[in-house]
């Protein structure tokens, strides 16, 4: 398996990844502690989609002492948003709602530009706008959310980035990210830029504000060096909570915007979404007879993962689906139809919210509202 | 000799430096061509203080075709301004006046912060303000001049910096600047930031504007990589004209703000300036008798260089001084007194202009006026 901030491929062993990255598992005790604040446990916690963390205990310690935390997450605007992107955003919104947390949402248009072939920012800027509509459609509270685009709002980031950069050597970024002599100096500097929003809640308010980063596990290397630098700048180390990737509809691997047939985009029509689902790889057998006899394998099946991650919230229902799959009672075609019947209304609703978001973009942008969010 | 953007020491052989850097000498023919536009030849050109260039011919070609060029120079605000800094600024003002050229003046407060021990920008910001007063005191035309501070005006620089950075690898900056694995990633990225003002005249106006950089020769490595990147971004390669360093008042070496007794600051009182000059190293002999008999050596004498660079504009007068020095007619004490009598009124006048500049800062700042200068 390969898991870096730029590439995720192979069969991902999340336990091994957490061990390698040195993160902590989300234990039942810690989940119980979260539940005391949230009432019920969010599906993505119950099901281990968010599965690992750093310093979540400390975030709760501080919260219980009356010190609220801020949330920080981000998006590299290199193309359309697919359902895999939306998964952690939905969880982030849940955290915002329950903990009344401010959210700093970073659009890393500079990173995407540096890694791609384009010679102009036009594409990055277009995708930034399109992706912001998707972010707003999730339902974040505009009063408690600010969206920061690196190139458009660099004046809010650069001084802290320079301070952070002063404590990051080429040795470090080489070791953490595998940078080489042939890496361009923009990419080399970028980890400093990505560290900044973790410090902004404290920097902007002038007091120590704990920061929690909900994000997919592949971004962890950035937070490792951010955490190393934090005390040197007088900021608390950001805590993290890490999620798994929603697999693509093809055979294995993360969903990717670069393989459009394996990803359902938020802007896909009902017809396209249905076609993609009906063409999906599954954990089924070669023939109906075989499947009726031996059952199928949900653990390698993207259709099952779609249900499990997002579209079948009821635990009893998903367990029944799993049993029916494994026993051979449910065939893949039927199972795909179940998913289609849930994805289509989800997309309709999402697209309506996305359309409505066009009138509310300014309420979220750093260039319109600055960085001051309520206490 | 060591000549890098961060260190200049040893006896500097400018011819060798130009050969090593691959720059062109300012030939009599080229100076004649300049003179056709400027009427008289500026002291700093007549005396070879500006001694080398890249593409100055092309700048004049374009100018003669009716295409005006912009000027770009800069200052790293790490401490007080001394007379050595003012030398190329006076020449830059001359170019601005004669060619009605727009000037982009960059304050590299980020660079200075990245190279120094301070943990905060407070010092950089204070020196930026103080140094801006010195720059304005030179007499630049506020209508044709904009001062850009990297951290305060980063929104004008960052996108182009990222575009430039995409074409600069760690290999390149390692080879050009001697960066190592232990170099911090802010310093590694900085050459991209320093390249930007060379492109701004074109980027802001939306058409191709030639750019001429008057600066000390130690900054040349920055322009070499800036020139390599320029065509990839669709900008013309910036031309340069390089000056020598005014030596410090101690024995050998460039004047340095870090050795305050060897540098006359623009803010020095008459008493302090006089003391520094009277304590200066000279090319004199051990005894008066010996000097009367054998003469002194102006070519190693900072007092002579002060006269030659700035304080004795009349060629006949400086030649007479040189002859009197070499013949033993003029003793070092008398020669120092001649310099003192010129430096003191210069400082008085400079300090008055510097004081007046406080009311005009806003007329120069990018954050107040933007980057649009007249055609």
Structure commentary:
- Two copies of one chain form a homodimer.
- With 375 residues, chain A is α/β, with parallel strands linked by helices.
- Chain A contains 17 helices and nine strands.
- A seven-stranded mixed sheet of chain A has the order 3-4-9-8-5-6-7, sandwiched between helices. The first copy, chain A, has a two-stranded antiparallel sheet with strand order 1-2.
- The first copy, chain A, is globular and about 65 Å long.
- Chains A and B meet through α6, α8, α9 and α10 of A and α6, α8, α9 and α10 of B.
Short description:
The structure is a homodimer of 375-residue chains. By secondary structure, chain A is of the alpha/beta class.
Main sheet record of chain A = 7 strands, mixed
Count of helical regions of chain A: 17
Structural class of chain A: alpha/beta
Shape of chain A: globular
Strand content of chain A: 5-15%
Distance between the termini of chain A: 42 Å
Chain pair forming the biggest interface: A-B, 38 and 37 residues
**Beta-strand segment tally of chain A:** 9
Poorly predicted runs of 5 or more residues of chain A:
none
Helix content of chain A: 40-55%
The spatial strand order of the largest sheet of chain A comes to 3-4-9-8-5-6-7
Question: Rg of chain A from C-alpha positions?
Answer: 21 Å
Round the mean pLDDT of chain A to the nearest integer and report it. Answer: 94
- What is the element string of chain A, with H for helices and E for strands? EEHEHHEHEHEHHEHHHEHEHHHHHH
- For this structure, the quaternary state is homodimer
Task: Sum up the structure in keywords.
two-stranded antiparallel sheet, 375 residues, homodimer, seven-stranded mixed β-sheet, globular, alpha/beta
